[in-house]
Amino acid sequence: MAQIPKYELLPETKTKEMLELFKGERTGWVLVGPKKYFFPFKFIEQGAGFYNFKARPDDTWVMSFPRSGTTLTQELVWLLSNNLDFDTAGKKLLAERFPFLEFSVFNHPDVTCEFLKMNKDDATKQELCREIAKPGYEIIAAIQSNRFIKTHFPFSMLPGLLDIGCKIVYVARNPKDVSLSWYNLNRAIKTQGYIGDFPTFWHYFENDLTPWSPYWAHLKEAWSLKDHPNLLFLFYEEMTYDFSKAIKKVAKFLGKTYSNEEIDKVANYLNIKNFRINPMVNCSELRACGIIEEGNFVRRGGIGGWKDVFTPELDARADKWIEENLRDTDLRFPLFNNNN
């Protein structure tokens, strides 16, 4: 019998409150496992399929909390693993080359019906709307090796993954930048449909009430495994500070060697100015279907964007939250000073 971690329903009062602000969910949410990871109600239906997903030794994964540099890391890992095949990367969507395991959980049936109506005159777009609602564990199971898989699940929700032998790159980013980027995407993508302001979103974020939260539990699970030979724990800040060095680090982990000229070519290809307008990676297919707003998936990149939005009061509150959650760990974000 398929296993599924224990879960509980979000209390009714909080559910009613959040349904008023997150219009992409229509039923409610569940808190999964002892750390109470936060997911839409559809997890009850599909959770066992993800929890019991059959990974393969030759899989390559990118894992992260949302908005931590995941898409950039995916394209980097794919290129390095595929002998810098820029030709295929320029013709085939990243979502096809490197599918997202659990996106189906965030496609409420009512919202999927709305997507289908929005695209009623285009059979190709309708097929995409149906495809993103299909469980990723079914779609990815049918892909031949070697597979590339994206997930935002924490390690505890993919038990035994490291022991199978696959390679996993986990990318982390400081919580202030994550929260702002996550807020912007929650407003832009209709599967979330957030209509509130940023301070309210921060309240949910710091109280572990946004998808894939708790943020700290997620990172600490990965950090505790950072010395495993099949895991590379990478900071987004590393990539923004010295991208060429980070590329070489990832290449070494993947067992690949490239010349400095080739590394420079990768760095230029993935430069944020080029990356932002690359239709193979910027969710152009979802924009075409009206599922995500124009120009809101790959945004500005970099670090420190939170400084333009956080008030002094919110900044102090965030600093206190960060300090409290770093007390029991040696995890530290490089090149990131909460007081700057």
UniProtKB/TrEMBL annotation:
Key words of the record: Transferase
Domain of life, source organism: Eukaryota
Single GO term (MF): sulfotransferase activity
InterPro entries assigned: P-loop_NTPase, Sulfotransferase_dom
Keyword Transferase attributed: yes
Segments forming domain Sulfotransferase: 57-329
Recorded family membership: Belongs to the sulfotransferase 1 family.
Annotated protein name in UniProt: Sulfotransferase domain-containing protein
